[in-house]
Structures are given as C-alpha cells and as structure tokens.
Amino acid sequence: MWLLTEPEMAAAGRALAAVMRPGDVIALAGPLGAGKTTLVRGLLAALGHEGDVPSPTFAIVQPYEALRLPVHHADLYRIEDTAELEEIGLDDVLFDGALVVEWPEHAGPGAWPQALHLSLEVMPDGRRALTWGLPETWEGRWPPPLPAS
C-alpha cells in the first residue's frame, strides 16, 4: 500500500505508464473524489497526451489514440447492465492498446481477470491509500519503486 498526496497520485500514474503494454487493463476502484482521474491524468501525460483529461462519466469511454500506447479511458459508473458493455466494445481496444476502467465492478465479477486492480481510498489526512491486486501478467512490473512527486 502507498499513501499518496495528489501530486504523488499523478506520479503513480506516470510510473504505471512506464510499464504498460498493449492488451493491459487497469481497473480503478474507489469512491468519488478518491483520485482515479488524477492517476489517469498522470498516466496519459507520461504517454504523451498534452490536452485536458476530463472524467469520462458521461461519455463512458474517452479514447486517447495518438500516444506511445493508445489508451481508452472508460468510466462504468452509469452502466447498469453488463450487456451494455458489448455495445461499447471495450475489449476491441486491447489488440494494440490498453484500457483503463473506472468503476470496474459495474462490468461484473468476471470481467478482465488479468487486469491490474488498483483501489483508492481517501484517508482522514487527505492522502490517498493506493492498494493493488496483482495478477500473474503484472508480476515483475508492478509495483515499481514508490514514485517521487
């Protein structure tokens, strides 16, 4: 577990970008305001994105394709039925890119079994506790040394 400030959360995203590969799925869980989008902003900046990174809550999926590694950032908060995910086609991006999913629990318990599961929790002092579930495909890649802000 890491305890991170907001700048350190962006640094964790940059560290994540350094080890990502095509086909990777990163599942981000945590309450509203926990720092999921802050982490994604750091990740996308490290991959070469220079513009805004809005939360995809209403769009559901925001593609970032002109990067070192194409990334689709999905927010499943508004998904009520897992059948809706087939229409979105999230798995199609995994052939040559990566997928970052906020609110992955809305996809059902069996979705993306090889995903790196990151969980965020807001601590009383305002820092974020970042914990992870490490599948075999991420062994040796995560966690890196604690990122510097």
Automatic annotation (TrEMBL):
<dbReference type="Pfam" id="PF02367">
    <property type="entry name" value="TsaE"/>
</dbReference>
<keyword id="KW-0067">ATP-binding</keyword>
<keyword id="KW-0547">Nucleotide-binding</keyword>
<keyword id="KW-0479">Metal-binding</keyword>
<keyword id="KW-0819">tRNA processing</keyword>
<protein>
    <recommendedName>
        <fullName>tRNA threonylcarbamoyladenosine biosynthesis protein TsaE</fullName>
    </recommendedName>
</protein>
<dbReference type="InterPro" id="IPR003442">
    <property type="entry name" value="T6A_TsaE"/>
</dbReference>
<keyword id="KW-0460">Magnesium</keyword>
<comment type="similarity">
    <text>Belongs to the TsaE family.</text>
</comment>
<dbReference type="InterPro" id="IPR027417">
    <property type="entry name" value="P-loop_NTPase"/>
</dbReference>
<keyword id="KW-0963">Cytoplasm</keyword>
